[in-house]
Amino acid sequence: xxxxxxxxxTCGVIIKDRKVLVxxxxxxxxxxxxxxxVGGKNRWGETPEETLxxxxxxxxxxxxxxxxCLCTSDFVNxxxxxxxxxFLVYPESEDFRLSVHSETRYxxxxxLSQLDLVPSDRSVAGYLVSNALID
Length: 135
Description:
alpha+beta
């Protein structure tokens, strides 16, 4: 039996007017042109909350306050077992400066279901819909 490496990864969920923020990865990025919730992999010694603060600053150029953990799920990518933790996130501003994304938008439940989401974020989208957090 092969023992896998394990990592924690995070995503931040910003809800505004009952819609959720998603970002589209730029062409040439690992998740080439797919939609996702902003976030990323934990660095050694970081808490998931610290990871999200760093990732939002790096990817959108904004400061955020991290709220409650909404849900967790596991997935495997390239022989690594990831433990995804999705948190509510509250932005200090919406003056986004995109670095790895080509666009952002707030979407409704129906719009979210039409987007080509990265596979790892589909469970988070399902949680948002099944718990009626977005319309």
